[in-house]
Specification:
104 residues; mainly alpha; 434 Repressor (Amino-terminal Domain); 0% strand; 60% helix
Length: 104
């Protein structure tokens, strides 16, 4: 499966796990619902600033996005530690050792 489709599935799964409709998620995220739909359909992917916000919203589910982007568990742990130290997320965004596998 191409990376953009893996990322699309991960974003949709995170939104679903948060129990939010596309409209609710878009409002919480501060984007147009059409942007979210494009991400969930694999047409576009979030830019770096949007990705940081998405990781903050996703919290513990953020590992799904990062794995879909092709990062290894070690890279995810390093990235999340850096995001926490940098104040981008309030607590570790993910612990790859305890999180679910990439969505199918």
């Amino acid at each position: 499966m191409p990376q953009n489709q893996r990322v699309a599935k991960a974003i949709a799964e995170i939104r679903s796990k948060l129990g939010l409709s596309q409209n609710q998620f878009a409002v919480k995220f501060g984007i147009n619902v059409s942007t979210l739909r494009a991400w969930e359909q694999g047409i576009n992917e979030p830019d770096l600033a949007s990705l940081a916000t998405l990781l903050r919203i996703a919290g513990r589910q953020s590992v799904l996005i990062l794995r879909a982007m092709g990062l290894t568990d070690q890279e995810i742990a390093i990235m999340c530690a850096g995001l926490t130290r940098g104040g981008i997320v309030r607590s570790g965004c993910a612990d790859p050792a305890t999180e679910q596998e990439e969505p199918k």
